[in-house]
Design a protein that fits this description.
The protein has 414 residues and is an all-alpha fold. It is 78% helix and 0% strand. The protein has 17 helices and no strands. Helix 4 (72-91) runs antiparallel to helix 5 (96-125). It is globular, with a radius of gyration of 21 Å.
């Protein structure tokens, strides 16, 4: 892969990410409320959304193949338009059938999005500083998502359920626009190393350090994936926190990650990637433990306690995504990079399936989910340090010099 050029129109990519995230931030706070308001009920709405997520779970490996064959740009545009079609279905909901169709299309679009967006970002970033461009992308996404979320909060405070359909309609339009912007991007075509041949999925799975990193990444993804599922009900029902705290917590984290992504990634560049991710996991363990410890506090002290630990959560989430995807980008050979990045998304997919189970566990022992998250994060820290002994130096560095052609090949230390 060659480094980016001024004509790659990366501004269009960042604008597409920003536009789509404004719409998503506007939509997500009202998504469940809208379907319940349409008469589906909370239990049926939950089962519809969960089924869509499960159906989409096997998709990343196939999407990775499409990315490597046709490029990330058309695949990412298709993901945007799939999600626009999902929003259109939701606007037409009069019963469960159309809601099922909307949920499945939306879940497929989300899975295709996350399985292709980092491949296009990698094409634009080049090999020399992928972490920096991933951090910039993360900053744009987080800031725009927060803008959409805060707008949704203000609109629902003003108009209540009357604004739900408007939020979904705006999200549909933003996805249509974002898909068109993606097609404006002009990444340089990948140039595989001389003598390289196209690989298959089994070649990706044969890379044992990468598979191990993906497994450890699943543990690392549990905290950010579970946050919006576990925190609101735990704070409200179990800790007796003020009604405003869950919304403020999620907004503060989203805005904080957007602001901190670039400087935190630059700070992480002073050490190796595996060590940076180990510190990230340690911070997640500390934060999860603080949430469990909050159960011992009186209700009036919960808000101050939770908000005092927010900087730790922001630092860990700001570091995790850019450093993880930068490592995968550097680890993968050019002809298989799309599949590497897509398979790595299984770490988030599996974590997304585990999160509802932790919610059920909290019904039994309220602090149990947070203790599980803390233990998983400690295990992730240990796993990252162990992996650090298996990865060569050019993979570990955040801003390596131009990589030799063979450096992108399988790096397992046999």
């Amino acid at each position: 892969m060659t480094d980016p050029t001024p004509g790659d129109r990366r501004w269009a990519f960042l604008l597409a990410v920003g536009v789509s995230d404004v719409g998503t931030g506007l939509y997500l706070p009202v998504a469940v409320l809208y379907l319940v308001d349409r008469g589906l009920g909370q239990a049926l709405t939950g089962s519809i959304l969960a089924t869509g997520a499960l159906i989409s779970l096997p998709l990343p490996a196939f999407v990775g193949h499409l990315v490597d064959r046709f490029g990330a740009r058309p695949v990412l545009a298709s993901a945007m338009w799939l999600q626009a079609a999902s929003m259109c279905c939701y606007l037409l909901v009069t019963g469960p059938a159309m809601a099922w169709v909307g949920a499945i299309l939306g879940a497929l679009g989300i899975r295709v999005f996350w399985s292709s967006v980092f491949a296009l970002a990698a094409d634009l970033a080049g090999r020399t500083r992928p972490d920096r461009f991933f951090a910039r992308t993360s900053a744009v996404a987080s800031s725009c998502f927060a803008l959409g979320g805060l707008t949704a909060a203000m609109l629902t405070a003003w108009g209540g359920s009357r604004v739900y359909a408007w939020a979904i309609a705006v999200n549909m339009v933003t996805f249509l626009i974002a898909g068109g912007l993606v097609l404006v991007v002009r990444p340089r075509r990948r140039t595989p190393p001389a003598g390289a041949v196209g690989g298959r999925l089994r070649d990706v799975l044969a890379d044992r350090p990468f598979v191990a990193f993906t497994a450890v990444g699943c543990l690392l993804a549990l905290v950010p994936t579970s946050l919006s599922t576990l925190a609101p009900i735990y704070l409200d029902r179990d800790l007796g926190a003020p009604d405003w705290l869950p919304g403020v917590l999620l907004a503060a984290v989203t805005i904080g990650v957007g602001v901190a992504a670039a400087p935190v990634t630059a700070l992480a560049g002073r050490t190796t990637r595996s060590r940076a991710l180990a510190w990230c996991a340690a911070g997640m363990a500390l934060w999860s433990g603080s949430m469990a410890a909050g159960s011992a506090l009186p209700g009036w002290a919960v808000a101050g306690w939770v908000l005092a630990w927010v900087p730790i959560l922001i630092l860990t989430q700001a570091m995790q995504g850019p450093v993880s995807n930068g490592l995968v980008t550097t680890l993968a050979p050019d002809e298989l990079r799309g599949r590497y990045l897509a398979v790595f998304q299984y770490s988030y997919g599996v974590a997304g399936v585990i999160a509802p189970a932790l919610l059920a566990l909290g019904d039994w022992v309220p602090t149990a989910p947070w203790l599980v998250l803390a233990i998983a994060a400690v295990a992730a820290a240990a796993g990252m340090l162990l992996l650090g002994t298996r990865l060569p130096g050019h993979i570990q560095r955040h801003a390596p010099a131009d990589v030799a052609p063979e450096a992108g090949s399988r790096v397992a230390a046999e």
